[in-house]
Specification:
The chain is an all-alpha fold. The protein has eight helices and no strands. The chain is globular. The relative contact order is 0.19.
Length: 223
């Protein structure tokens, strides 16, 4: 599914009392994927607790997970992704802070040289000291060999923002990351050993504990 690069002004998750306008930078577009109707049926048929648990692995906001789970069944992937976006747009400042508290720094690509680790660690530390939460950036569609440069560029550029501006931009990147993680869950067939997540003989390629954790790229092993 394709998503536009900006949010309508009235949907931006502004902090309470914030009245300034913020220009959201264009983010990489998400690529449309097959709808996996059998796997979506498994998500639709899951218990409320199972669905919320799966959703919380994509975004650590109980309010977001509850809202997306409550609107099942979804007729197709487009409807699910639209509901996930809508719920993310409506996160309050407190919801956003709770979701960010559950995030961890995104990992570097394999083979990154040690000097880059040092530079990125210092940049992350400076960012967290200024804003009080981890730095998040959605890099969907960016080649792996460009991820480090894009991340460092993003941190250095966003360090100049004031906290209210940065909170709005972070919310947009988090929304994108949550959608990407949700797609990865469907690709894995929503299979955590429960028959509710198996339809038509399809089985997922990853168990729940192998799925991307918040703030981690797909394929990165958990701690």
């Amino acid at each position: 599914m394709t998503r536009g690069p900006t949010l309508p002004a009235h949907r931006l998750p502004y902090p309470s009392g914030f009245s300034g306008g913020v220009a959201i930078p264009a983010l990489p577009e998400q690529t449309r994927i097959p709808s996996y109707p059998g796997r979506l049926a498994g998500f639709n048929a899951a218990t409320a607790d199972e669905a919320r648990e799966a959703l919380l692995s994509c975004l650590r906001s109980p309010r977001w997970a509850q809202r997306v789970a409550a609107h099942r069944p979804y007729p197709d992937l487009d409807a699910l992704m639209a509901a996930a976006d809508e719920a993310a747009y409506d996160l309050s400042p407190a919801d956003l802070a709770q979701a960010l508290a559950g995030e961890t720094p995104q990992p570097l690509p394999e083979g990154t040289y040690s000097a880059a680790h040092t530079a990125l660690s210092a940049a992350h530390a400076a960012y967290e000291a200024r804003f009080g939460h981890v730095f998040l950036i959605h890099l969907g569609g960016i080649p792996p060999d460009e991820a480090l440069d894009r991340t460092l560029e993003g941190i250095r550029s966003r360090l100049t923002n004031d906290p209210d501006e940065e909170r709005v931009i972070t919310a947009e990147h988090l929304r994108r990351l949550a959608g990407e993680r949700l797609v990865e869950r469907l690709r894995a067939a929503w299979n955590w050993g429960s028959p509710l997540f198996e339809r038509g003989g399809e089985r997922g390629g990853a168990a729940g504990h192998d799925a991307p954790a918040p703030g981690r790229a797909p394929g990165t092993p958990p701690r």
